[in-house]
Specification:
Layout (H helix, E strand, L loop, with lengths): L12 E2 L2 E13 L2 E10 L4 E10 L2 E10 L1 H5 L5 E7 H17 L6 H9 L12
Antiparallel strand pairs: 1-2, 2-3, 2-6, 3-4, 4-5
Helix pairs in contact: 2-3
């Protein structure tokens, strides 16, 4: 059988799974760091933005917002950091929920950094998938 090539509509694939662009925005205002992690989803076409407000290393506020691609393009500060699969994004979202509870009363800088690393896919070697 022919193995289908991995050039489906200009989309990237990782081990046969579709990947989605992930963006990050980090800025500081009034002593707080606002860190946003966003993923672009095809169906429905929208951007899911996870917003963390961090003061002195403690996660003060966390919420998720969804915007259209057009609205997202008008937002400042975002840069593409990686592409990820939906299964990795699910792991990220579940970890985020746990961290948001855990980090209300203590500093969680390394936990947040480690959580973002989940989104980066390991480069697959031949036969790795």
């Amino acid at each position: 059988e022919d193995v289908p090539s991995q050039t489906f509509d200009n989309k990237d694939y990782f081990c046969g799974k579709e990947t989605f662009p992930v963006y990050e925005s980090v800025f500081t205002e009034e002593g707080e760091t606002i860190r946003k992690i966003a993923i672009e989803i095809e169906k429905p076409p929208q951007i899911e933005i996870h917003v963390w407000t961090i003061r002195k290393g403690i996660l003060r506020h966390f919420y998720v917002e969804k915007v259209s691609k057009r609205e997202f393009e008008e937002l400042p500060y975002f840069k593409l950091i990686t592409r990820t699969t939906l299964s990795q994004w699910k792991i990220f979202s579940e970890g985020e929920a746990q961290i948001s509870q855990m980090c209300e009363s203590r500093v969680c800088r390394t936990e947040l950094e480690d959580l973002v690393k989940v989104l980066y896919l390991e480069k697959s070697e031949k036969g790795h998938c």
